[in-house]
Write a structure and sequence with these properties.
heterodimer, A: alpha+beta, 1 helix, 15% helix, 49% strand, B: two-stranded antiparallel sheet
């Protein structure tokens, strides 16, 4: 028979464990689906008042043994989210839209200024520096991964 | 004898510094001969006329872009702001080059140009105007731009534009082009050589 004080101790340990799991998954931006993917360095520069298009950046690492194909990105904070890539060709800067993006096992893709970026259009509400909002990545295998995008200063 | 040795060392040091500088001009392309810019008639971000006269008596760095550009233009303008910051530690305010953002999408650019350029550097100048006048200057800069189709499901569109920065001397002649990737230290060093040849810019 377990003494009442032991029951409290078990409850306390279980609670600590749950808090620990919650904290670690938040720190690594892992969704509850436990995919072998890790999102790092997510941030959206605040942008400039009056300019409706914003950019979002993050790195996505595939720590698994199978390929992942990113096919869609969405967020409740924006009416439209697209994957874009800035390219330089023949002395011109241009942006091309990507319909999908492959992340090979053991590889990372980096959404960073001047390269891959999320094109964020039709904001649903005013975002201020320090705000955060959820972003969901959709993969061709039907899996999804959500992470938190913080809004940071432009510099 | 000792002073002669120092002089010799200084001369060797100076020669090797110049040699390494000469080898680093890959993204900074001087034009020989410099190219005179054609007349043009545009407006700055405050609605004041901006034409060839406004490029006289200053060095200018002109970058072609558009305000709805979410990724490349802000990166380039932030680099130019960093160039300005470094130059301000070496040059008197009157000798500073002016950064001019030539906005080629007037339909979207005109209303927000003032707050856009001020965001990067309060001293920056944004210019835009009628398409024919924009095209005059773009052609004179040997630059180009192309307005793309609307993105599906939105009224937004992408504008492809030249990626280089034009360096204009106080006689309104284009003397160099700077191609990306923009290295702030390198740009500052080359600009100082171009603006003040013969000076020691270490």
């Amino acid at each position: 028979m377990i003494k009442p004080s032991r029951i409290h101790l078990w409850k306390l340990l279980m609670l600590c464990g749950l808090i620990g799991i919650a904290l670690s998954s938040h720190a690594e931006n892992l969704s509850s689906t436990s995919l072998p993917l890790r999102v790092k360095d997510a941030h959206q520069p605040l942008g400039i008042a009056g300019v409706s298009a914003r950019s979002g950046y993050f790195s996505l690492e595939n720590k698994g043994t199978t390929l992942f194909e990113l096919v869609k990105v969405s967020s409740p904070a924006y009416g439209m989210v697209m994957m874009h890539k800035s390219v330089q060709k023949d002395g011109m800067d241009n942006m091309v839209m990507l319909k999908h993006l492959i992340i090979k096992p053991g590889h990372s893709v980096h959404f960073s200024p001047g390269g891959l970026h999320l094109m964020l259009l039709k904001p649903k509400w005013d975002l201020k520096q320090g705000d955060t909002y959820p972003v969901t990545l959709y993969f061709s295998n039907g899996k999804t991964l959500s992470f938190t995008m913080p809004v940071v200063s432009n510099s | 004898m000792k002073s002669l040795r120092w002089l010799l060392l200084l001369a060797i040091g100076s020669l090797s510094a110049n040699a390494s500088m000469a080898g680093n001009w890959a993204n900074f392309l001087p034009l020989d001969p410099p190219k005179a810019l054609p007349p043009f008639s545009l407006e700055d971000q405050r609605g004041n006329p901006f034409n060839l006269d406004n490029l006289q008596h200053h060095w200018s760095l002109i970058y072609v872009g558009y305000t709805s550009c979410p990724d490349v233009c802000p990166v380039s303008l932030l680099k130019l702001a960093a160039v300005q910051k470094q130059l301000s530690q070496k040059l008197k305010p009157a000798a500073m080059p002016q950064v001019v953002f030539l906005a080629v999408d007037p339909k979207r650019d005109k209303l927000i140009l003032a707050q856009y350029v001020a965001h990067f550097n309060k001293a920056d100048i944004g210019i835009t105007g009628q398409v024919a006048q924009i095209d005059n200057l773009v052609k004179g800069l040997e630059a180009s731009y192309r307005i793309g189709r609307k993105l599906a499901g939105t009224d937004q569109y992408v504008v492809a534009h030249s990626s280089s920065i034009a360096v204009i001397n106080p006689q309104t002649r284009m003397v160099a082009k700077i191609n990306p990737p923009f290295d702030v230290d390198q740009i500052v060093s080359h600009l100082l050589q171009l603006m003040h040849p013969g000076d020691n810019h270490d």
